[in-house]
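Input record, target 12 of the design panel.
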C-alpha cells in the first residue's frame, strides 16, 4: 500500500498555522495528517483516504480517539477534511484527554454501493477500511510520539454511511469501542444486499453503549433498520437507545447537543482511570440507567421500569435521560450556562485576533467585538444557517447534510477597516443558544446596555 504522510503541527491563534506563532503563545493542540492511496491488494481498501487527527495541547497520555465519520457521497467525503477542526467536538476531546479524528474517503461518485469509486468500498469496513484505519493510528502514534494511540479505545460517531461503518467497526473490534452514535444508518439497512454479507455479531458487542438517531422524515429503510437494531440488541440486554429527531430527515440537525453529552457520560463510565496502565474498558454501570418506552418521550429510573426490556430505550443516567426527553419532543437540548470568555486578545495594525474554547454544552455561536467598551461588530457578520440547525461560528455549508465546519475553517479574527488611531478591543463569546460569556479582559460582566445586541 503506497502512502504519503503529512505532519501539521498548528500552534494556533486561529485554526491554521501562522508562521509568526511561537512556543510561548497559546496552543490549542497539534494536528497530524496521513494519506493513503488506493490499495492494489484484492482485499485492501480500493479507495484513497485522508485522516486528520487533533491532539489537545498538554496531553501526556491519549486516553481514547473520538472519530467523526462522514457519510456517503462526494460532498460528505469533503466535509471529513474539516471534522477534526470542530471546536465543539474538541471540547469533548480535551475534557477526556482524547484525540479527535476526521477521516475523508476519496470516493469518485455519489454511489452507495461497491461499484468502482462507490462508498460501500469504505463503509463496509470489512473491505479494507478497518485495516487502514488501524494502520493510520499506528502511523499517528509514531508521528506524534503517543505510542498509546495504537491501542487506545474509540468513540465512534457516524452519519449515514458513516453510521454503517461505525456499526461494522464495533462488530469487528468490540473490545476497542467505548460508545457508538449512529445517525441515520446501521448495517441492518443492508441485509437485503447480496454484496453486503451478513454481519457477524459477537456477544461482546452487546456491552457497547449505543444510540440510534434517525430523523422523523426517514420512515422506511433507515428508520426500520435502526428500530430493528435497537430491539435486537435490547433483547440481549445491550445498553442501546433510540432518539428520533422530530425536526429532520437525512441531515444531522442539532443532534450534536445530545451526542456530545451522551459520549461524555459513556466515557465517564467506561474509560480506564486516568494514569491507569491498562486500556481495558470498564463495563457500563446499569445501576444508574434510566429507561423509556421505545417510541416514548419520558424516562424513569431502570429499577422502576415495568415495561418490556426488549422494547425499551436505554439511557446512561438521569442527566442524559432528561436531555433525551427534551430532544425527542423538540429536536433541541436547552442550555442555561454561559460559555467561557475569550482570551489572548491581540491587535496588530487593524487586525484583532483572539482565542476561545467552545462551550461544552452549546458550542460557539458567534463573537461580539467591543471597541472602547462599546458594541462594534459581530463575527461572523451574519448567522450561517443549515437545515434548521442552530448557527455556529464554524457552521458548515448551507444545505449540507453533514455536520462539520465549513472549509476553510473560520479564523478568530476581525479586521477593523475604519480604525483611526488607537482603540481598545475586547471580545465576547456567545453560545448557540444566545448566552454571552464574560468579556475577554477578565471577570467583567456584559454591560446591561449591550445585552439586547448580543444576538443582533
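The sequence produced for target 12 reads:
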Amino acid at each position: 500500500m503506497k502512502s504519503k504522510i503529512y505532519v501539521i503541527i498548528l500552534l494556533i491563534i486561529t485554526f491554521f498555522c501562522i508562521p509568526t506563532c511561537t512556543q510561548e503563545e497559546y496552543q490549542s493542540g497539534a494536528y497530524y495528517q496521513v494519506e493513503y492511496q488506493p490499495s492494489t491488494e484484492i482485499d485492501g481498501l480500493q479507495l484513497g483516504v485522508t485522516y486528520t487527527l487533533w491532539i489537545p495541547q498538554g496531553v501526556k497520555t491519549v486516553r481514547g480517539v473520538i472519530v467523526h465519520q462522514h457519510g456517503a457521497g462526494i460532498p460528505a467525503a469533503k466535509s471529513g477534511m474539516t471534522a477534526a477542526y470542530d471546536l465543539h467536538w474538541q471540547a469533548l476531546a480535551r475534557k477526556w484527554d482524547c484525540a479527535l479524528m476526521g477521516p475523508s474517503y476519496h470516493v469518485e461518485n455519489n454511489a452507495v454501493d461497491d461499484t468502482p469509486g462507490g462508498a460501500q468500498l469504505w463503509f463496509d469496513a470489512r473491505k479494507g477500511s478497518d485495516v487502514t484505519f488501524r494502520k493510520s493510528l499506528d502511523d499517528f502514534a509514531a508521528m506524534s510520539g503517543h505510542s498509546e494511540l495504537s491501542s487506545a479505545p474509540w468513540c465512534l460517531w457516524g452519519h449515514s454511511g458513516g453510521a454503517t461503518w461505525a456499526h461494522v467497526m464495533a462488530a469487528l473490534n468490540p473490545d476497542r469501542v467505548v460508545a457508538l452514535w449512529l445517525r441515520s444508518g446501521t448495517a441492518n439497512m443492508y441485509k437485503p444486499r447480496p454484496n453486503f454479507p451478513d454481519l457477524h455479531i459477537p456477544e461482546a458487542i452487546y456491552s457497547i453503549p449505543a444510540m440510534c438517531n434517525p430523523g422523523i422524515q426517514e420512515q422506511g429503510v433507515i428508520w426500520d433498520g435502526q428500530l430493528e437494531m435497537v430491539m435486537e440488541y435490547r433483547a440481549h440486554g445491550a445498553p442501546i437507545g433510540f432518539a428520533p429527531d422530530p425536526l429532520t430527515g437525512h441531515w444531522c440537525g442539532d443532534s450534536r447537543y445530545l451526542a456530545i453529552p451522551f459520549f461524555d457520560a459513556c466515557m465517564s463510565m467506561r474509560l480506564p482511570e486516568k494514569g491507569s496502565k491498562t486500556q481495558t474498558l470498564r463495563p457500563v454501570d446499569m445501576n444508574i440507567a434510566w429507561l423509556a418506552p421505545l417510541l416514548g418521550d419520558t424516562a424513569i429510573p431502570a429499577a422502576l421500569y415495568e415495561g418490556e426490556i426488549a422494547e425499551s430505550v436505554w439511557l446512561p443516567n438521569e442527566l442524559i435521560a432528561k436531555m433525551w426527553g427534551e430532544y425527542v419532543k423538540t429536536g433541541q437540548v436547552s442550555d442555561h450556562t454561559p460559555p467561557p470568555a475569550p482570551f489572548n486578545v491581540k491587535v496588530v495594525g487593524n487586525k484583532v485576533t483572539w482565542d476561545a474554547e467552545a462551550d461544552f454544552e452549546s458550542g460557539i455561536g458567534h463573537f461580539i467585538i467591543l471597541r472602547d467598551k462599546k458594541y462594534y461588530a459581530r463575527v461572523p457578520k451574519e448567522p450561517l444557517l443549515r437545515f434548521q440547525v442552530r448557527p455556529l461560528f464554524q457552521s458548515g455549508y448551507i444545505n449540507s447534510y453533514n455536520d462539520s465546519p465549513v472549509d476553510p475553517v473560520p479564523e478568530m479574527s476581525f479586521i477593523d477597516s475604519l480604525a483611526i488611531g488607537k482603540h481598545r478591543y475586547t471580545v465576547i463569546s456567545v453560545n448557540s443558544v444566545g448566552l454571552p460569556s464574560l468579556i475577554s479582559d477578565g471577570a467583567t460582566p456584559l454591560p446591561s446596555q449591550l445585552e439586547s445586541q448580543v444576538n443582533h
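The chain has two domains: 3-330, 335-456.
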